[in-house]
Amino acid sequence: MKTNEIREKYLSFFESKGCVRRPSDVLVPRWDPSVLFTPAGMNQFKDHFLGRCKLDFTRATTCQKCLRTGDIDNVGRTAFHHTFFEMLGNFSFGDYFKREAIHWAWEFLTGRQWLGIDPGLLSATVYLDDHEAADIWLNEIKLPKEKLQYLEEDENFWPASAPSLGPDGVCGPCSEIYCKTAQGEVEVWNLVFTQFNRVGNPPDNLRPLPSKNIDTGMGLERISAVMQGVETNFHIDILRPLVEAAGEVCGVNYDGSDLTNENGRRLRRIADHIRACTFAVHENVYPGNKEEKYVIRRLLRRAVLDGFQMGKRTPFLFELVPAVADLMKVPYPELSETIERVQGVISAEEEHFLGTIEAGLVRINTIFNSMVAGKRAVVSGTEAFEMYQTFGFPPELFEVMAAERNLGFDWKGFGVEMQRHGELSGSGEKNLLFQRDPLEKIKKVTAPTTFLGYTSLECSEAEVIAIVSGESLLEEASGVNKSLKIILNRTPFYGEKGGQVGDTGEISSDNFVFKVDATQYDGELLVHSGTLTSGQIAVGDRVVASVDVDRRQAISRAHSATHLLHHALRHRLGGHAEQQGSKVDADVLRFDFTHHKAIDSETLTQIETDVNNMILDFIPVTCDSMPLEDARKVGAMMLFGEKYPDEVRVVVMGESKELCGGTHLTNVGQIGLCKIIAEESVSAGTRRITALTGREAVKRVQQLDSVGAALAGMLRVPLADVVPRVENLIDIGKKLRKQLEVLARKGDISIDSLLEGAEDVNGIKVIIWATKDRDLNMLRELIDQIRRKSQPAAILFANVEMETKKVTLLASLTRDLVERGLNAVDWIRTVSKFVQGGGGGRPDLAQAGGKNPDGIPDAFAAAKKWLGEKS
Question: In the prediction, which pLDDT does 193 show?
Fold first, then answer.
């Protein structure tokens, strides 16, 4: 029976039992801070189990894509361990319980129209005190007594050993179902009965829950291996082709008959890791140094090392991405839409690691050899950090290699080194957990601040409910320039949130004026931070709260432009260009998004044009609150891994539809202009665009026009020809440098020799040189190089055209001499009379012509005398 058939049979079976079929949740649930990746099918139903949300259904079934790294070292070595896997599950939220869960599991496993497994091959376990479950197995299912085991809480309770060891909270016994195969007894299904709330230590610490739940899980790959009669999950129909494809790209034949073969283990591990990484990168989780990004980097680098150890010296993992998409296309057709992007990300990570892996392995072997020679058994934290920092070797990978030689690994020492170098996430942040919050008392007795700022920028009927100075709550405050935090019962001030900065403005009454410098959220309270500029303020005062209108308008221009930019990026780059962060300020926006390479100038111009075309279309902006399901129906964009409340605010600007709580304009035409000023990398796989809007954008355009006009004037070309002219000058400069290099190689001229022959006049290096028939541009380039190499310096060159006897003098002073008051124009006018000429120029560079070559020695003498007198 094929894997896709088993998956569909399972979901259809439980639909027939009244369960609602739900799609797999994302692999990276950014809404859940307790996990980096979805570890089990129940994860998306956490709020349902805990009664935190409205139940639209009480029975559900899913096939959930999961990723776990707890047993990563066993992947490829054992028959059943994976990082990425699919978990079949059925769930009850206060609906059916043990009887149905056990009966339906048995029916699905043994029923002819379902899996049709011989009942004689099945056995079960129960928690030793769960007599209810045991009775169902023995007296209703008629399972023979010898096939039912009673196990302790460390084996058959969730969480394991919860009654004795905790933690407190929801828990319950479980029952596992095993199937006898050629490889032995294989666990295929775990039924968890969450029926207790653990409170404190035993005895009598398990309190029955008023609403009992069911959470079951069956690994799809494992049941497929059982049904297909293969000895390992890696040989099922959706995995063996990938293992063999890995062998092909590595130039190694996969021998599935010997599961102990080291290359076979490597190929199975490569297949597992590329499958996990393909799904993760598809969801915009790129390799990096922190959290889930680090996990993906670690998996990719482990797979690259496996390939390297089989002789691969070039990227190869990216070639397997199409195979993953093809093998998984039935349940996850969306993978085919991002193949090229995923390949690009993975290939770049491979290139990066391959650049250091060979030297890294040499260094690791040196460390191991020195440990053996010194009879040292543990890799030090310093050595581990060196390998991570210098060669990019994940410490977990180093630990595995050490373990293969029966050597230990100093994780504590590695952690110390990471903290010392500021590498750990949050290492630079202070621990604020136990700092006193003077507002805690207010939060307990006060309703959330009512925000009025969507429709009004002034409120004349607000009341002061709290005044904070430092860590103290005050009843009243007075003085001038006194720093305070003010909380009102209602306010038009927007608090910093979702990337948008908080409002500024003024809170006042007949008795005081308070300047608001920042507005922030503290829980559900809006806190106005600023300065009491005059008078006395007291709790209970009726006040007028007024937002700085011009600044708010500028912020709204930037925020609305951010939505247009996001839309344009997705249109030009693809749907993967998803927001990773933003900062919205007054007419300035910064937008971080997922993309694995720099945006070329032509595409960036197209994106900017798209945004401004939408602005010129004067598209109206609508902001409406609606149920989340309605937001989905209207096509509002929802980000991978985010979890949203039941009621959301949808901001629509033409084709741009996003969930957003920020402030916006009423029409995008009010943005006026959007000007992109920078595009850069933030981290691997994340780019950043900085742009200006409104008045700031106009200022930037005017500034660019001014600079362009000035350059055109200096170069004496039309504005449109400035770039070609500059390119031409750069090209001339390159040619002159080559000429100088040729001359230097011939021994004809050398910057170093000129500097060595310089005279010292009052601490100034004076370089004086007479030559003939030289190109003046080459001489100017030579002067520039000398000025860059030596300061302070005064340079005077005399060039004679031998055919015409024309003399040209070039005089230059370094910037520090000019700042001291010396002027090259004055200098050259003093000396040019000795060659019967005259000249002019700039304070740092001047030129003169003459017709008396015989006067050059006198000119040089006068030049040194002038410097001696003026310096």
Answer: 95
Average pLDDT over residues 793-821: 91
Other Cβ atoms within 10 Å of 102 Cβ, number: 25
| pTM, entire model | 0.63
Asked whether 178 and 187 are in contact (CB, 8 A), the reply is yes
DSSP 496: B
Confidence of residue 712 (pLDDT cuts 50, 70, 90): very high
Q: Give the separation between CA 438 and CA 440, rounded to whole angstroms.
A: 6
Q: Exposed e or buried b for every residue in 33-57, given b needs 16+ CB within 10 A?
A: eeebbbbbbbbbbbebbeeeeeeee
**Pick from 104, 112, 80: nearest CA to 177:** 104
Cα 702 from Cα 577, distance rounded (Å): 31
- Half-sphere exposure (Cβ direction) of 42: Cα atoms closer than 13 Å: 19
User: What is the spatial distance between Cα 577 and Cα 568, in angstroms, rounded to a whole number?
Assistant: 10
Contact partners, residue 282, CB within 8 Å, separation at least 6: 334, 335, 338, 342
- Please name the amino acid found at residue 555: I
Which amino acid is present at 6?
I
Chain mean position to CA 609: 27
CB 572 within 8 A of CB 607: yes
The alpha carbon of 585 is separated from its chain's Cα centroid by a whole number of angstroms, namely 21
Q: What DSSP string describes 409-453?
A: E-HHHHHHHHHHTT-STTTTS---TTS--TTHHHHHHSPPPEE-T
Decide: helix, strand or coil at residue 327. helix
Point out the least confidently predicted range of 46-50, 106-110, 650-654.
46-50
Instruction: Pick the more confident residue, 415 or 346.
Output: 346
Q: In this predicted structure, what is the pLDDT of residue 871?
A: 76
Residues 6+ away with beta carbon under 8 Å from 129: 173
